[in-house]
Design brief:
20% helix, 622 residues, alpha+beta
Length: 622
């Protein structure tokens, strides 16, 4: 035991003595000039070490320095400025003049990727060195060899600015680069990005191939975790995991994500490829697909007490993500600004086996769109929903404010009642809906559609059913109360059914002008016209109803009624319809017609009487 302790003490003394001798005999500033020269030679950047290099022997053998900066050729500001830097070095290689660095750690750094930090072409005289302190290259220092295993950046800030109007701050930047072999570097990056009162925190692990650097870089991101929180998002935010293969190419400058797979909030998945060509006008190509994409779940709408567009609107207003549009049309229209689309070209394709939006489960959803200099064409926006099919091809002119849209909606065989429920409208109709329209206007949300859009709509409803109003029953009851020649109706259902119903209408700034309305069934034929208001959600329609069957009795009077077109006005709020039906004038007209006919028949039978002829002349004058 004593022999073991003695051995350990001797070993400790040797190590301490060796470190002391090393610190005394090896001056880290001997290879300072070599480091600066190699950085300049290999990267073109100027490394400035403001203070002397010094040893630090516990708990690691390290070289410390004060403030450091790294500046591109003729750049206005340094690319990197750090308060201090630490180099953890190997002990034994120093004895053979090899600087083997386990780790370079920079803490509290500011990294700038801005126009001012980029290399600048300059024909004037060279810029004077930033540091007045010069360290000559010590004889023999050229024999030093630099070997760096890891680079670590901790608690730093990245300022990324592509132009003077767009700047992104990446805070709490923690980066670890570790060389695995001559051509590959493993990368771990953890940070937070803040913009527009939202925060994206993420961590990724990747293996980077640097064999063709600087012509190109490729990386296999095998682990990526993220969370997006902030204004306009659910309290738990949007979070998930992902992986992708990333490739960067210098000429032409481009970056692409291939074989991308991303999850978000309870099983929503995206996969596909994204390519960006980074020219003066960036070009983006996006091709994504999903087996299931629940937008309600991602945005937190499915957690609301009422799964309606109005509830979602209130939720967004409450979270300050969308301010309610009040005021005049000028100020409201100024919100519809899509001019940023002029600065990019985009080709996007997105498909989803199941796409959920505002409670609507859409199968086989497809989106195909192209934008060129602010002129966008959505060639495909389609899917199957509520037992039918819809398509909304749309063109967008984003070169003006407000943006102008032109769409031709097509709906085929869609069950209207669940559609009305999903749109937070009174479910007073049921049946299969077909719509063919041509609409245009300024703006692109519900408010804009109900205020600034106009166009034509052709609507057909098969097996239509109007809840809360039984039109044949109303007419029968009204005539039964006025005359005993009509029986009281036996049908007490509180709805009107029609085999088909068609409407030709025009939309103008929130008001729908119904130019032609027609409905028929085995009991009636209806014609009509009127108007409906999307803003006030009310209607006022004048109908002419021919009740061909269902009177409950047969006589001459009923047969005459079956030929009449009875006026009926339906008006009021959509969820509380009122009606006006006045049968007394029709009864008087019918009675007068019958009396006149009886008199004329009697006169015709007594045409030889002179007094009768005089009476006939008098009646004809009347």
């Amino acid at each position: 035991m004593k022999r073991l302790l003695t051995t350990l003490v001797i070993l400790l003394v040797v190590i301490v003595t060796g470190l002391t001798v090393l610190v005394m005999l090896v001056n880290p500033n001997d290879f300072r000039g070599y480091i600066v020269e190699q950085v300049q030679k290999k990267s073109g950047y100027q490394l400035v070490l403001q203070d002397d290099l010094r040893w630090h022997v516990w708990p690691k053998l390290s070289i410390l320095t004060g403030e450091v900066s790294l500046t591109a050729r003729n750049a206005k500001v340094p690319t990197i400025v750090a308060e201090n830097m630490r180099l953890d070095v190997e002990l034994l290689p120093l004895l053979s003049h090899q600087l083997s660095v386990k780790e370079v750690m920079v803490k509290g750094a500011i990294l700038r990727f801005t126009p001012d930090s980029q290399p600048q072409k300059q024909t004037e005289a060279p810029i004077a060195p930033e540091n007045d302190t010069h360290y000559p290259i010590v004889a023999g220092s050229q024999a030093w060899k630099l070997d760096i295993a890891r680079i670590k950046v901790a608690d730093s800030l990245l300022i990324w600015q592509t132009n003077e109007h767009s700047q992104l701050n990446v805070r709490d930047l923690n980066l670890l680069l570790e060389r695995s072999d001559q051509d590959h570097v493993s990368l771990n990056l953890r940070s937070k990005i803040n913009k527009n009162q939202q925060e994206l925190s993420f961590e990724l692990n990747s293996l980077v191939d640097i064999s063709d650097y600087p012509q190109q870089l490729s990386a296999d991101i095998h682990s990526f975790e993220y969370q997006l929180k902030g204004i306009g998002l659910p309290s738990s935010g949007i979070q998930g995991t992902g992986n992708a293969k990333v490739k960067y190419q210098a000429v032409p400058e481009s970056i692409s994500l291939q074989d991308m797979a991303l999850t978000m909030n309870d099983g929503n998945k995206l996969k596909g490829d994204i390519t960006a060509i980074l020219q003066d006008k960036p070009q983006y190509s996006i091709n994504l697909s999903s087996p299931k994409f629940n937008l309600d779940n991602i945005l937190g709408w499915d957690a609301l007490p009422k799964n309606t567009p109005q509830a979602k609107h209130d939720y967004r207003v409450e979270n300050n993500s969308l301010k309610p549009v009040i005021a005049t049309s000028v100020s409201a229209l100024s919100n519809y600004d899509l001019t940023f689309l002029q600065g990019i070209d985009v080709d996007i394709s997105f498909t989803a086996d199941k796409f959920i939006y505002q409670g609507m489960g859409i199968d086989h959803f497809g989106l195909q769109a192209i934008n060129h200099s602010g002129l966008a064409e959505i060639t495909t926006l389609s899917g199957n929903v509520f037992g039918g099919y819809f398509a909304l091809p749309t063109s967008i002119d984003a070169t003006v404010i407000p943006a102008k849209l032109h769409t031709k909606p097509l709906l085929q065989g869609i069950e209207i009642q669940p559609l009305l429920t999903a749109l937070a409208l009174p479910s007073i109709f049921s049946g299969q809906l077909n719509v063919d329209g041509d609409l245009l206007g300024e703006g692109y949300d519900e408010y804009a559609i109900s205020h600034y859009w106009q166009g034509d709509l052709n609507i057909d409803l098969k097996d239509a059913r109007l809840e809360g109003l039984n039109i044949p029953q109303l007419i029968q009851q009204s005539f039964a109360r006025a005359t005993d020649k009509v029986s009281q109706p036996t049908n007490t259902d509180d709805f009107t059914e029609a085999k088909s119903m068609s409407v030709k209408a025009q939309l103008e700034n929130g008001e729908i002008k119904i130019n032609e309305l027609a409905a028929n069934s085995g009991m009636f034929n209806i014609k009509g016209q009127g108007k409906a208001n999307l803003l006030k959600q009310n209607t006022d329609v004048s109908l002419w109803v021919q009740l061909t069957n269902g009177w409950g009795t047969q006589n001459e009077f009923v047969r005459r009624l079956a030929q009449l077109k009875i006026p009926l006005r339906v008006y009021g709020d959509w969820d509380n319809l009122q009606y006006v039906l006045n049968v007394e004038p029709m009864l008087r007209d019918e009675l007068q017609r019958k009396v006149n006919k009886s008199i004329k028949d009697w006169l015709e039978n007594n045409s030889d009487n002179e007094n009768i002829k005089a009476l006939d002349d008098l009646l004809n004058k009347k």
